[in-house]
Amino acid sequence: MSPLKYILQKEFKQIFRDPAIIRVIFILPIIQLIILPLAADYEIKNINIAIVDRDHSPSSNRLIHTITSSNYFRLVEYSSDFNKAMQGIDNDKADLILELPRGFESELYAQKETKVFLAVNAINGVKANLGATYLRNIVQNFNNDFRISVLTPGRFNDLPVIETTSSNWYNPRMNYTFFMVPGILVLLITMIGLNLSAINIVREKEIGTIEQINVTPIRKTHFILGKLIPFWILGLVVITIGFLIAWLVYGIIPLGSYLTIYVFAAVYLLVILGLGLLISTYAENQQQAMLISFFLLMIFILMGGLYTSIDSMPEWAQWITRFNPVAYFIEVMRRVVLKGSGLADIRQPLLIMFCFAVAINYWAVLSYRKRS
Amino acid sequence: MEKFVSDKAAIVVSSVSKSYTTGKTVVKALDDISFEVERGSLFGLIGPDGAGKTTLFRILTSLLLFDKGQAMVDGFDVTTGYKAIRKRIGYMPGRFSLYTDLTVQENLNFFASIFETTIEENYDLIKAIYAQIEPFKDRRAGKLSGGMKQKLALSCALIHRPSVLFLDEPTTGVDAVSRKEFWDMLQTLKQEGITILVSTPYMDEANLCDKVALIQAGKILGINTPANITQQFPKTIYQVRNNHMHALLQEAKQWPFTEQIYPFGEYHHVVIRPGAAEPVFPPGIEAGRIHPGIEDVFIDLMRDHEQ
């Protein structure tokens, strides 16, 4: 009988006897997948707006009503004094100020044009930017409606107008959970896989069992495989749990086949676990291993294309992402889940992952030394 | 792998040196060590903490590479024949290093199976030891008492019937009764033809070895049978005592015949300067000549070595 079988037996016993590992594997994905996508919503709601209305006319009222009924804005200050509104920004109570000047309505009717003033609190850049854009859209719509209702049809098209309409392919309703949840699932198995494998050999070093193992005729490859295989299986279990939650909670069913995802995930996990074991063979204690894997995770996640688009990074950063396994998996995941890509479509990233897996695990076996 | 035919020596160490570099300082853990251990004998390495005992063990068990010299275990060179050596040695590190989250039986089974053997096959060898912990075979190893951990570790080191057994401070932190039991077991294993190299900081255990090597600061101070070591000690030793032991220690240093004095249990031991006349002790002091023990020899050798 191969010694590998006994090593695997031992590893599985140890894993299932460690209540912390079981908790990490089953509870962590459930909580993360339910909470994180809600927090990672890109749509900005609850933008606090202060309106300075110097006109108090039916038209200004209608515009204010349109704004507040849009669900995006929350009216926190309504006055005719700009300084009061500015105070709202100073106190961080308001994100935007919209000022409607005196004569807003009369100018609109008499001169067919008027101006409104928009002030943005740029401390929270994303909120300010999006808020201003939303508001501009609303004002523009208001403008169009006004033209239709007031101006005579004959003079309507005096000025050429280009209007853009867009349709969102692969995610028609731009449901953010469709691209966030699969991405978060990738981060999740990366975190679990990297941390568990990084700690494992180090723990044997810390409690001294590695000494006892090293004087036995166990082969290095068997030892490393014995560490790799259990976590590989656990990783696939975590993905399965993740997809179950994605389906039950968010109704996400990949457009492509699960098989495609599992094939890629199987190779991907070998890369992540191999990396963890590599850290493990170099680190001397669990603290070192945790710090290194945490550092790598930060880079993997922030440069993985989940939160920020890789295409908008500077070129050198894009080069780094080519060595980031997370970036490959997130891209593949989205392609399969949203676009329905098959194995043939993802063969290039799959091949790259395979090369990573071979190289990293070979390195891990080499760097694990039974003698010092 | 060429096997060196040597029926007499199971372990041959010749001129082995090993130093560690920490920062800019180089510490010599082993300095030109040489000795031989006869096949089937019980050899003791006696020395204080930090003497280099564990380093030597790790070299002989193929865990550590060394700088200079040559070492052979059971006919195989430690550097080149480590694969063969790992199949035929048993090692019990100073620190308990079995899996604490596995049960007694699982640990034993695991180590048996990675040596491609079974508990049943070699049960007769470990029976005397394992029988004592067998009632607790379903208990996690981490929950065992110190003495029981020791027995489990010894069982695991023996389960593949090694020809050479390395025990690094096996009795440190173990109670007196378990210590005695443990040494009785070693005598039994010797009968089975297993060569045993054991290290200990306890001098009283030295008397139970066939041969001892006194080791201090990476150097071997002397190798002999315990009886010869004490018999060949050339100096005379008196034990002295009075009501003011602390003052006596200071006072005795001034006596003309005193070469060295140190506390030893209820007495102080006074080593007489070679060539000095028959010592005459001041009144009020209870004094008597004694046979030197291994400890006395060791303390004397250490002192010579330091000078």
Shape of chain A: elongated
How much of the sequence lies in strands of chain B comes to 25-35%
**CATH architecture assignment of the largest domain in chain B:** 3-Layer(aba) Sandwich
Mean pLDDT of chain B: 87
Oligomer: heterodimer
With strands numbered from the N-terminus, the spatial order across the biggest sheet of chain B is 6-7-8-3-9-10
User: How many structural units, i.e. domains of chain A?
Assistant: 2
Class derived from helix and strand content of chain B:
alpha/beta
Using brief descriptors, characterize the structure shown.
heterodimer, A: 372 residues, alpha/beta, abc type-2 transporter like fold, 2 domains, 4 strands, B: 307 residues, Rossmann fold, Alpha-Beta Plaits, 6-stranded mixed sheet
Question: Could you characterize what this model shows?
Answer:
The complex is a heterodimer of chains A (372) and B (307). Chain A has 2 domains: 233 residues, no CATH class; 112 residues, abc type-2 transporter like fold, CATH 3.40.1710. Chain A contains 14 helices and 4 strands. In chain A, strand 1, helix 3 and strand 2 form a beta-alpha-beta unit. Chain A is elongated and about 95 Å long. Chain B is α/β, with parallel strands linked by helices. Chain B folds into 2 domains: 221 residues, Rossmann fold (3-Layer(aba) Sandwich), CATH 3.40.50; 58 residues, Alpha-Beta Plaits (2-Layer Sandwich). Helix content of chain B is 30%, strand content 30%. In chain B, helix 3 packs parallel to helix 5. The radius of gyration of chain B is 22 Å and the shape is globular. Chain B starts with 8 loop residues before the first strand and ends with a helix. The chains are: A alpha/beta (372), B alpha/beta (307). Chains A and B meet through helix 1 and helix 8 of A and helix 2 and helix 3 of B.
